[in-house]
Design a protein that fits this description.
Distance between the termini: 33 Å
CATH architecture of the largest domain: Sandwich
CATH superfamily of the largest domain: Jelly Rolls
Helix content: 10-25%
Strand order of the largest sheet: 1-2-3-10-5-8
Length: 185
């Protein structure tokens, strides 16, 4: 494999992983970055070599490190993501989702730091068959619903539930914070 095709393949995979880690569609990335949907798709398939300006726009839209898009597999040592550099998304009013897991783990094992304002709700459609979520409350109170089942949790409580059916996490009367682990089978 030539050096150029290796870089192109790595860039394509890392960009696709970063987009998926944030749950964004090609259209959403296009709107956020100002790069056309077709160009984003071509880059993700390794069919286009983007300009530095295009890459910069994509990294800003995805909140990822510019150099990180070109990196290969992690080397030995300690890989640190500083708090200010962790990607943050908001899927619902009053819910902030900070992505703690690396982009390469998307679809297998994902870790999120969830912050809720009072009464905020994070509704989720069913994930892949066999998917489970593990929710640990750090502060406040949260009610988790999975299908017809529901349970209220306080600080230190952990709920494990099926996520391959409609499910939701709802804050109580005050703000709340939790760690969510999504485990696909």
């Amino acid at each position: 494999m030539t050096q150029r095709s290796d870089i192109t393949d790595r860039l394509a995979a890392n960009l696709r992983d970063a987009r998926r880690a944030q749950g964004l569609s090609l259209e959403a990335v296009a709107k956020l970055s100002g790069v056309s949907r077709s160009m984003v798709s071509q880059i993700e398939r390794g069919e286009s070599s983007p300009t530095v300006a295009t890459l910069w726009n994509l990294t800003q839209a995805l909140q990822v490190d510019f150099a990180g898009l070109l990196e290969g597999k992690p080397q030995a040592g300690i890989d640190v993501t500083r708090a200010a550099a962790a990607p943050v998304i908001s899927r619902a009013a009053g819910v902030q989702i900070r992505i703690l897991s690396p982009a390469e783990s998307v679809g297998e094992h994902e870790v999120y730091d969830l912050s809720f304002t009072a009464s905020a709700v994070l509704d989720s459609d069913p994930h892949s068959p066999g998917c489970r979520e593990h929710l640990t409350v750090i502060d406040g109170h949260l009610t988790v619903t999975s299908g017809e089942d529901s349970s209220t949790l306080g600080p230190g409580d952990t709920a494990r539930y099926l996520a391959d059916r409609p499910h939701a996490i709802r804050a109580g009367d005050g703000p709340a914070r939790a760690i969510l682990i999504v485990q696909n089978s």
